[in-house]
């Protein structure tokens, strides 16, 4: 059975065990109630209370409880039996040794495919020529390469085409010349807004990776570096264009001035389709645990 992740999103919620079920309530209103056998983890997104009985049941059934502050994970209760996480981490290390290129190809194929979808959307709607067919060709070529270096080379080639297309979609008043990341590059408003969107996306993906029991520091595409959440950056690649870029391009074309308004930006990115990101994290952990093919998130 594919186990579920339960979210505690409402301020003042209280978790207790009732009739054998883990139940989330606000005063007398039941928000959700579920059998512990159906749960993989509980994600606590806001200030709430949890009874010791819930912690005891969670330990008994191997349920992990993850706590967030502003959508960024800060603590995780791992069942004392530890078997679930330990098994996942061992399999993740094995996959890193044997299937690194396979996973790297899947992440970047998903990224480039989704970039192609974004450009193709504007080509079809407005009749532009954004060279989306070149993105499609590069996405297919990614499936044929055999090394991580070749994957990254194809990603870099696709990025040149993609950001050139994005530039042509934006009002010239924004001064966007291409993708820049560092503040020291004297970023234009669109690049600053992209950084905000990617930052919010990173938090959600980080939470999803933690919640399914994966080690966020063991990535397949991004290399090890002290404190670097490499696997989070890997999984983020698939969501950048559909969940951040496309929204921001639409906002810029509609009203370029709003790209500099922080309230508008945080509102724009507040809906990151958490369910789809968590579902993709579960696909990733299942592919690792069962030695199955990993299928990236493909936008439509």
From TrEMBL:
GO biological process, one term: defense response to virus
Pfam families reported in the protein's UniProt record: Cas_Cas1 (PF01867)
Keyword Metal-binding: yes
Class of the enzyme per the UniProt entry, highest EC level: hydrolase
Family matches, as HAMAP family: Cas1 (MF_01470)
Subunit structure: Homodimer, forms a heterotetramer with a Cas2 homodimer.
Name the UniProt record assigns to this protein: CRISPR-associated endonuclease Cas1
Gene encoding the protein: cas1
């Amino acid at each position: 059975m594919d186990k579920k992740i339960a979210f505690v999103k409402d301020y003042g919620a209280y978790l207790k065990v009732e009739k054998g079920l883990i139940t989330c309530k606000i005063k007398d209103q039941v928000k959700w109630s579920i059998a512990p056998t159906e749960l993989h983890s509980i994600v606590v997104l806001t200030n709430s209370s949890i009874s010791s009985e819930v912690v005891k049941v969670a330990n008994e059934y191997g349920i992990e409880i993850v706590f967030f502050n502003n959508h960024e994970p800060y603590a995780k209760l791992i069942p004392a039996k530890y078997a679930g996480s330990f098994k996942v981490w061992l399999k993740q290390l094995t996959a890193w040794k044997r299937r690194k290129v396979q996973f790297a190809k899947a992440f970047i194929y998903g990224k480039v495919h989704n970039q192609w979808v974004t450009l193709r959307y504007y080509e079809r709607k407005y009749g532009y020529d954004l060279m989306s067919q070149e993105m499609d060709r590069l996405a297919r070529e990614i499936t044929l390469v055999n090394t991580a270096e070749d994957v990254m080379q194809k990603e870099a080639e696709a990025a040149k085409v993609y950001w050139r297309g994005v530039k042509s979609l934006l009002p010239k008043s924004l001064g966007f010349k291409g993708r820049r990341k560092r503040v020291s590059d004297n970023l234009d408003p669109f690049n600053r807004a992209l950084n905000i969107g990617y930052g919010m996306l990173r938090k959600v993906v980080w939470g999803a990776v933690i919640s399914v029991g994966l080690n966020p520091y063991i990535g397949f595409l991004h290399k090890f570096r002290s404190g670097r959440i490499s696997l989070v950056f890997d999984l983020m690649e698939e969501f950048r264009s559909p969940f951040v870029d496309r929204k921001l391009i639409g906002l810029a074309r509609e009203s370029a001035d709003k790209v500099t308004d922080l309230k508008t930006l945080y509102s724009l990115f507040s809906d990151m389709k958490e369910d789809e990101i968590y579902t993709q994290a579960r696909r990733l952990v299942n592919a690792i645990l069962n030695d199955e093919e990993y299928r990236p998130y493909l936008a439509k």
